[in-house]
Amino acid sequence: MIEVAASCSPVREIHYTGVDLFEARAASDGPGMTLKTAHRLLKTTGARIQLLPGDPFTALSRAANGLRGTELLVISEGHDPRSLSRAWFYLPRMLDKGAQVWLEQAEGPDGSLAVRVLGGDQIAELAAAATYRPAA
Fold first, then answer.
1. Calpha distance 96→120 (Å, rounded)
2. Distances (CA, A) of 79 to 12, 67, 68, 114, 122
3. Would you give per-residue pLDDT tens digits along the chain (136 residues)?
4. Which end of the chain is more exposed for a tag (fewer CB within 10 A), N or C?
């Protein structure tokens, strides 16, 4: 993804932010890599790399204000549905005008994956449904 983004916009620095469980990944979450390994591999791309350990809600609740101007957001299949549904609250403040949001989802009985591109209205609906409730 970083190489494709760089080829589309060679004069701009690419900023990449990744959210992942890293070391907190359970066996049921599937294979992964350590935070250190991921950073070392991504750093070789020349992009400015920021990795946020945790589930989508926890990571974005800490970092969303610093991620303003996001132009492309790719959400892979496999996140905890509860965490992801709560994380939508933070997206509108992060996304640049004209940003694209790609959501990977399992489809069909064979579990094949497809990517849906979400429009602004869909993002607003998901964000509105994810009302923020601070911890008591």
1. 11
2. 30, 20, 22, 15, 19
3. 888 888 887 777 899 999 999 999 888 777 889 999 999 999 999 999 999 999 999 999 999 999 999 999 999 998 889 999 999 999 999 999 999 999 999 887 888 999 999 999 999 999 999 866 655 5
4. C
Q: Are 51 and 39 in contact (CB under 8 A)?
A: yes
Q: Of 60, 58, 52, 45, which Cα lies nearest the Cα of 14?
A: 45
Q: Is this prediction's pTM over 0.70?
A: yes
Record the tokens describing residue 62, joined without a space: 């800490």
> What are the backbone angles phi and psi of residue 91, rounded to the nearest 5°?
-65, -45
